C-alpha cells in the first residue's frame, strides 16, 4: 500500500476523485494527509468528511519559499507519506524540493502536454484553433509542467465550445485519469527512463485513454 499525500489550494475536485478511488478495498494507495497552503480551501472539508487528516501550511506565514517547503516536508514525514499528488496546488515548487522527491510527485495539467503549459489552457487552446484538447498526468520536474507523461486523455473541440464549458469537459477527464495514473504507480507499473515514463504491459490502463504505448 502506497502512502500518499495530496497537496491542494482550492476546491479539491481532483482530490475527491482520488478519495473515491482510495475508498475501494483493492486500490493500491491510501491518502495519509491532505496539505493545503490555503486555510480556506474547500478540499480540506472534503478530506475531513472522508476521515483523512489535514494540515494547513500557509505560504503567507513564511519568509521565503525554502522555509515554506521545509514545513511541507516536515508534514510529509510526520504522516509517513511516500508519494505526493498535486491536485490544484497553486504554488511552484522549488527545484530543491522536487529533486528531494524525485519521481515521487505526480501532477495533473489541463492540456495535452507539452502544449499549453501554465494557466488559461483552454482559452489558449481555443485561440490556437486546436481540434483536440485534454489533460495530462505527469511526474513532476523542476521546470513548470515538465516531466515524464504517464497518462493523457483527449476530447474533440466543438465549434460551439467556450473556455468555461471546455474546461468542465476536460475536468471530467481529469477525474478519470488521475486515479488511474496513481494506481499504475502504486502497482509498480511505471518506471522512468530519462524524460519518459514506461508503463509495463501487464498494468496498461483502461480503454479510451490516450497514453504512452507500453514498452515492456
Identify the notable features of this structure and list them briefly:
Rossmann fold, two-stranded antiparallel ribbon, globular, 9 strands, 216 residues, alpha/beta, disordered C terminus, 2 domains, seven-stranded mixed sheet, 6 helices
Concise description?
By secondary structure, this protein is α/β, with parallel strands linked by helices.
Task: Report on this structure.
The chain has 216 residues and is α/β, with parallel strands linked by helices. The protein folds into two domains: 1-101, Rossmann fold, CATH 3.40.50; 108-216, Rossmann fold (3-Layer(aba) Sandwich). The chain has six helices and nine strands; from the N terminus they run βαβαβαβαβαββαββ. Strands 3-2-1-4-5-6-7 form a seven-stranded mixed sheet, sandwiched between helices. Strand 1 (2-8), helix 1 and strand 2 form a beta-alpha-beta unit. Helix 5 crosses helix 6 (163-186). The two termini are 23 Å apart. Residues 210-216 have low confidence and may be disordered.
Shape: globular
Order of helical and strand elements: EHEHEHEHEHEEHEE
User: Structural class of the secondary elements?
Assistant: alpha/beta
* Cα separation of the termini: 23 Å
* Unreliable stretches: 210-216
Mean pLDDT: 93
Would you give the CATH topology of the largest domain? Rossmann fold
Amino acid at each position: 500500500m502506497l502512502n500518499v499525500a495530496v497537496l491542494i489550494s482550492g476546491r479539491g475536485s481532483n482530490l475527491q476523485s482520488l478519495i473515491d478511488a482510495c475508498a475501494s478495498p483493492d486500490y493500491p494507495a491510501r491518502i495519509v494527509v491532505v496539505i493545503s497552503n490555503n486555510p480556506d480551501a474547500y478540499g480540506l472539508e472534503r478530506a475531513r468528511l472522508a476521515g483523512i487528516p489535514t494540515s494547513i501550511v500557509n505560504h503567507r506565514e513564511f519568509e521565503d519559499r525554502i522555509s515554506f517547503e521545509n514545513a511541507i516536508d516536515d508534514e510529509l514525514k510526520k504522516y509517513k507519506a511516500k508519494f505526493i499528488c498535486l491536485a490544484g496546488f497553486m504554488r511552484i515548487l522549488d527545484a530543491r524540493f522536487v529533486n528531494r522527491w524525485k519521481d515521487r510527485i505526480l501532477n495533473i495539467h489541463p492540456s495535452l502536454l507539452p502544449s499549453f503549459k501554465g494557466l488559461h489552457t483552454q482559452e489558449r487552446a481555443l485561440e490556437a484553433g486546436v481540434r483536440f484538447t485534454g489533460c495530462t498526468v505527469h511526474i513532476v520536474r523542476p521546470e513548470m509542467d515538465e516531466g515524464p507523461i504517464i497518462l493523457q486523455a483527449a476530447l474533440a473541440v466543438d465549434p460551439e465550445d467556450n473556455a468555461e464549458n471546455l474546461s468542465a469537459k476536460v475536468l471530467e477527464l481529469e477525474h478519470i485519469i488521475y486515479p488511474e495514473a496513481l494506481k499504475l504507480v502504486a502497482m509498480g507499473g511505471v518506471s522512468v527512463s530519462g524524460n519518459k515514463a514506461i508503463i509495463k504491459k501487464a498494468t496498461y490502463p483502461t480503454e479510451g485513454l490516450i497514453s504512452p504505448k507500453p514498452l515492456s
